[in-house]
Design a protein that fits this description.
144 residues, mainly alpha, Helicase, Ruva Protein, domain 3, 6% strand
């Protein structure tokens, strides 16, 4: 039986010799952009709202009219407070909608002591779910 030699790391891809954050290989253009300190424009409140509605729809969830209005309101608040840029616009939208759906499930579980929820109840996201999700997501970022 021959001894097992330790595996050598793969060489970097051509043109990707540097690393910007210690994890991802970066080519020359990436190093220039990373060092330039570029600012990218923030989203408008409508864009994360559309992302959130898309996330909900992709999971089969349906926000009611009040939930859609609340999505727009919380994204406006997140943009004003700088939370959307700090956390990431798309990431905030995705996490908010996932947590809204999870809180909806908990609300249904708590409310229904007998019987089964209807299909419409199981997929409907309400404004109270969105508000509670936003409060949970932003609690660690609030001062006071």
């Amino acid at each position: 039986m021959s001894p097992t030699l330790p595996r050598r790391p793969d060489p970097p891809a051509p043109g990707r010799t540097g690393r910007t954050d210690g994890r991802r290989p970066c080519g020359p253009a990436g190093r220039r952009a990373a060092g330039a300190g570029r600012d990218f424009p923030s989203y408008s409140a409508a864009e994360p709202t559309l992302i959130g509605q898309s996330v909900l729809a992709s999971q089969g969830d349906v926000p009611d009219n009040e939930a859609n209005a609340e999505l727009a309101a919380v994204f406006t608040r997140a943009l004003v407070d700088g939370l959307a840029d700090a956390r990431g616009n798309g990431r905030l939208a995705r996490e908010l909608c996932q947590k809204s759906a999870a809180l909806r499930d908990l609300r249904l579980y708590s409310a229904l002591t007998t019987g089964k929820p209807t299909r419409a109840e199981m997929v409907a996201v309400h404004a109270e779910d969105v508000v509670a999700a936003y409060e949970e997501l932003t609690a660690p970022h609030r001062v006071g």
